[in-house]
From TrEMBL:
Name of this chain's protein: ABC transporter domain-containing protein
Superkingdom, taxonomy of origin: Bacteria
Lineage: Bacteria, Pseudomonadati, Pseudomonadota, Alphaproteobacteria, Rhodobacterales
GO MF, one annotated term: ATP binding
Gene3D superfamilies: P-loop containing nucleotide triphosphate hydrolases (3.40.50.300)
Keywords: ATP-binding, Nucleotide-binding, Translocase, Transport
Length: 248
């Protein structure tokens, strides 16, 4: 669904994404983790062909409409400028499909509203919602696009715990239905619990790529995140708790 080959993004002379080679296949929910400034956003924007890059991304070569049909992009910035109703805003996710304001488009919007628990918000003015509510609306807009791949930049930041878990479950369901999701996030507990695979970025490089229990080693947590943490596989799944910083 996505193939990156030696992808780099330069800012001036400095590579902020440095030679990333990776693939995403159906069924995967990939957590893109790493410290602030590691290059997570830049990697996703380069992969989508939204910024100049070197190397190759299977998505970036396509025209914008073809790209949008293959991949939904949920940026970190969440500004909603227009006073549209929630349903109208979510329906904007259908734009890559052209004039499909028919039963297929309407059903996709309804399904996206339902998945994000927004049915009762349908007629509310989107700009009048709280920050977390607006974030859920924008996730619903990405879901309504019905693209097999979703790239999401910190989509659960600022959501309450129930909404965070529910969103990760929505992404997991999207993957289990044959799609794939790459989502950046800073909550390593949710990443460990819900993601099938983690990509760890550090100073522009992809330094680890594997299952959470393979990746979140004591050594990696110390070297990349500068933390000590408790990580255990329990009958209820992986439980990860950061304990202390080793200094910034
Ligand atoms: N337009 C730009 N011009 C110059 N440098 C940039 C630009 N955009 C990003 N950078 C730099 O590139 C590096 C990677 O930024 P990026 O936003 O990809 O990090 P991130 O891993 O997503 O961080 P965070 O977790 O804080 O969101 C940072 O050092 C940042 O300062």
């Amino acid at each position: 669904m996505l193939e990156l080959q030696d992808l780099s993004v330069l800012r001036g002379e400095c590579p902020v994404v440095d030679g990333v080679t990776a693939q995403v296949g159906p069924g995967e929910l990939i957590g893109l983790i790493g410290p602030n400034g590691a290059g997570k956003t830049t990697l996703m924007r380069g992969a989508l062909g939204l910024i100049a890059h070197r190397g190759a991304s299977s998505l970036a070569a396509r025209d914008p409409v073809a790209r949008a049909k293959l991949a939904a992009w949920l940026p970190q910035a969440r500004e909603i400028a227009w006073g549209l109703s929630v349903a109208e805003l979510v329906a904007l996710g259908r734009l890559p499909h052209g004039r499909d304001q028919n039963t297929v488009g309407a059903a996709a919007v309804e399904e996206a509203l339902r998945r994000m628990g927004l049915e009762s918000y349908r007629e509310r003015t989107a700009t009048h919602l709280s920050g977390g509510e607006q974030a859920r609306v924008l996730i619903a807009r990405a879901l309504a696009q019905q693209s097999p791949l979703i790239l999401a930049d910190e989509p659960i930041a600022g959501l309450d715990p129930a909404a965070q878990i529910a969103t990760m479950e929505v992404f997991a369901a999207h993957a289990q239905a044959g799609g794939a999701v790459v989502t950046s996030l800073h909550d390593l507990g949710l990443a460990a619990r819900h993601c099938t695979r983690l990509w760890v970025m550090d100073r522009g490089r992809l330094v680890a790529d594997g299952k959470p229990e393979e990746v979140l080693t004591e050594q990696l947590l110390a070297e990349v995140f500068h933390i000590r943490a408790h990580f255990k596989i329990t009958p209820e799944g992986p439980v990860f708790q950061p304990l202390s910083t080793l200094g910034l």
